[in-house]
Amino acid sequence: MKVLMFSSDPKLREEGSGVSERMRKYEKALGELKIILLDRARGRFLRFLKGYFEAKNLLKKERHDVISAQEPEHWFLAWLLSRKFSVPWQMQIHTDIMSPYFVKHSVFNFFRRMLAKFLIPRASCVRVVS
Questions:
Q1: What is the CATH class of 2-128?
Q2: How many angstroms separate the CA atoms of 81 and 26, rounded?
Q3: For residue 65, what is the DSSP state?
Q4: Among residues 34, 37, 58, 68, which is most buried (max CB within 10 A)?
Q5: What pTM, to 2 d.p., does this model score?
Q6: Contact status, residue 58 vs residue 29, Cβ threshold 8 Å
Q7: What mean pLDDT is reported for the chain?
Q8: Angle made by CA atoms 106, 109, 114, in degrees to the nearest 5
Q9: Residue 43's Cα: distance from chain center in Å?
Q10: Number of C-beta neighbours around residue 57 at 10 A
């Protein structure tokens, strides 16, 4: 199975970190795992544009079985690419995005919740991580 994943965890770059080791195990179990890293080192806003085009070029070259995204901003990219390339996408939810406390924490979370309400029904599958 070929999986394209969006992540923003800078620990992916650290050899031997728990995150990089976990991704290595995922790749072994899945067959092939390509990760588009959208960390802040690529710029606060440009990282999304760069990530979109990096993923688009990768999907043009080779077909993937699923696109996986774990943050609301990444969900939107996965949804766009899913529509463009007819590839199912997996939404990972790592917090209680519908909690009133989530929205009170940050003004950005208000928009993340709106994005979630739009994208949850459009996801091919949802993986809830607790």
A1: alpha beta
A2: 22
A3: S
A4: 68
A5: 0.89
A6: no
A7: 92
A8: 150
A9: 17
A10: 9
Strand partners, 69: 6, 91
pLDDT at 86 (0 to 100): 97
pLDDT at 88: 98
Which 8-state DSSP code applies to residue 24?
H
Residue 43 is predicted with a pLDDT of 74
Residue 127, amino acid: R
Q: What is the distance between the alpha carbons of residues 2 and 61, in angstroms, rounded to a whole number?
A: 13
Burial (CB count <10 Å: 0-12, 13-18, 19+), residue 26: middle
Q: Are strands 89-93 and 125-128 parallel, antiparallel or unpaired?
A: parallel
Query: Which segments of the chain have a pLDDT < 50?
Result: none
Token pair recorded at residue 73: 């901003």
CA distances to 40, 93, 98, 102 from 130, in Å = 25, 8, 14, 15
